[in-house]
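Problem 3 from the worked examples.
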Amino acid sequence: MSTLPDYRFIRLKFYAPIAVEAVHLAGASVVGRWADRERRQYPERGVTVAQRFANCNGTPEEISEFTARFGLLAESPGRGKFSFEIDAWRASQRDFQKFWRILARGGSPSRYWPLPGDAVEFRGEWLHLRCAFLWTFMTYELLSQPAKVRICERRDCKHPYFVAQHGKERYCSTDCSNWSQAQLKKRWHEQERQKRIASQSHSR
């Protein structure tokens, strides 16, 4: 007799509904309107939405572009127009980066309470979790693979938040990895130069 739970074969996907259009800057705010039809944003291989959000440089232009592509952080698709302040978006980004750093250090919340409004749909052999908010979707992206959540070890990296694809990756990109190798070579050559200087001084 099997002791495995009945739900062991359930296949679950999660997605965020995105329905925005005419997104643009208006002073210190981003404005737009809700579209009549929504599209589904599922997790993708490679760069996650969470990664794009955490690494966004925070300029009004990039915030507007992010919103046009992925929607609002904590509002479900509605009707009419929407608007939010750029400073509020940046504050949310700082909170999310803090959460990322906690996971990258090996910490994890004992439980996570999603924002209200999520729903489950049955589509073939899969259960599809409809995240009410993009914020919830990005949080699930990280919590579904916490061991791969990393921060690039290059101190001056402009996009330090990344999700490792395999192994024990320490750098977010080939450029940062090559930079690390170059730094190691420089230190090695400097150490060798110091050894030669010390050897020459002793031989005199």
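Problem 4, a separate protein:
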Amino acid sequence: MKIQYRVRLQCQILGLALLALCAQGAARNVFAQDMAGMPGMAEAHKQTIPSTSLAVTVGGKTQTFSLSEIAAMPHETVSVMNSHLKKTESYSGVPLAALLDKMGMPFEKGNEHRLMKSYWIAEGTDGYKTVVSAYEALSVIHADTVMVADSVDGQPLQKDGAIKLVISGDKRPQRWVQNLKSLTLKSIE
């Protein structure tokens, strides 16, 4: 009787374990399907292609910057805590405000209200996109730095592509865009 009870108990435990595993797998599949249906979520898992240039669009005008042109622009360096890697990193790159200047829209009194109503759409080669307020990207207004980084800890970026959007004030690097391929300035008006 004891052996029969023990076998029955083991079968019940095994059955519950299998049921839990099946339910977990089904939940994972449902979650993956839900996430794939959300805009931007499917792009996060596409294969990455290294960025080779940066297309910047401001006011309907697009200019493509090569990696050497980005490297030749004035750079700033910021130290940030990368919560994904749990370490402090030192990024060097071109602030977005400098790209605005290059594109003919410097921060000045005449552009201030337009920039307050504008935002950048940053896109990586894998289709990952994020939005950054244009005003937030102005270091004369905002304490944090928003930059197109091309090096980390004194070395060229490698696994993140040749260029990467880095936002120093973000506690989590969710809006950082690896393999950055384009920046587009849009307005809410």
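Solution to problem 4. The CA atoms of residues 84 and 177 lie 14 Å apart. Confidence is low (pLDDT under 50) at residues 25-45.
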